[in-house]
């Protein structure tokens, strides 16, 4: 009788893994009720000191040891207002990583800029600083890094390159809630950092975003761009620049404040379970992202497994994924392909540049396996992942039948 579920055996998790997200309770309910009963559902309906959004901005800035925060309607807009405030315009080149969610590069395009896709470090999956420097031209106006999967890029090297070439750096922190580099959370290490609070993120209000920075002038420009071109302190119908209405609502501000109180404990849980899972998988011959002592706290969006075919009968990663899914484990390949291979770039006239990206293409095609960060909230789920991997490794003859 077959052992692997893909061939008729009993699955490790017959009903799949139980993942509750978001976690919420009375605090969130009371926060929403407070906004409801007040009857002012946008931030300017109440004094600034009473606004849920304004209070969240202060709390989010404090959480990152940053001076300023502007909350916006989503993470893509956070990137856009940052690029606008930095002066990105038609034809300007912005260096971006080849592996990320498409919003990273789309935000550049929507501002008129030209995304320049560069390769990743094969052991960390983060933007390769050497590739960044090699891509800089006289048209380069900014660098956008992504703390992909919640693992921080090498901010030391990126900062040195940025200072050498006098370029601003936008940290795309959509995956990086809770992540620390050298004991400071990511986001305001160089120029500014942009966050998403969409449903799948480690801090969520369903949708929403924010930009943090230590630069007061930049913060003021971002504020004006997100608030219909109005700088702080001017009249309600006084517009100094062309901007948009990208504000966050009081509903979302209230939810984020309540959820932020949960984030430190959730981050600790994810870290502990992530470290345990890493060690268990290592014993089975599977790699994860390279450890780095400069990462003093690890937030997660994906838990990344680096598939090693030699440890699993030399079958293709996708065969291994098929076997894992049959066992009830929700594994994927994250975004699937490098961004520039999406039809919106590869099959369109959208202006962009692609530098050589052999690591990104290999990782996407053969190596990367991704698990949701929410799975890490419960060690029972982590144990199921280990059990499934161990079961597959113990039945390699059956695994080869799936090819």
Structure description:
The chain is an alpha/beta fold. It folds into two domains: 145 residues, Aspartate Aminotransferase, domain 1; 234 residues, Type I PLP-dependent aspartate aminotransferase-like (Major domain) (Aspartate Aminotransferase, domain 2, 3-Layer(aba) Sandwich), CATH 3.40.640. It is 37% helix and 13% strand. α4 links the parallel β2 and β3. The longest helix has 34 residues. It is globular and about 75 Å long.
Give a quick rundown of the structure.
This protein is of the alpha/beta class.
CATH level 3 topology of the largest domain:
Aspartate Aminotransferase, domain 2
Name the overall outline. Answer: globular
The assembly state of the depicted protein chains is single chain
Count of separate structural domains: 2
Please give the CATH architecture of the largest domain.
3-Layer(aba) Sandwich
Number of helices: 13
Low-confidence stretches: none
- Rounded average pLDDT: 97
Q: Report how far the terminal alpha carbons are from each other.
A: 19 Å
The helicity comes to 25-40%
Order of helices and strands: HHEHEHEHEHEEEEEHHEHHEHEHH
Estimated structural class: alpha/beta
Beta-sheet strand percentage?
A: 5-15%
Strand order of the largest sheet: 1-9-8-5-4-2-3-11
Q: What's the CATH superfamily of the largest domain, by name?
A: Type I PLP-dependent aspartate aminotransferase-like (Major domain)
Instruction: State Rg.
Output: 22 Å
> What's the total number of strands?
12
What's the level 1 CATH class of the largest domain? Alpha Beta
Main β-sheet description: 8 strands, mixed
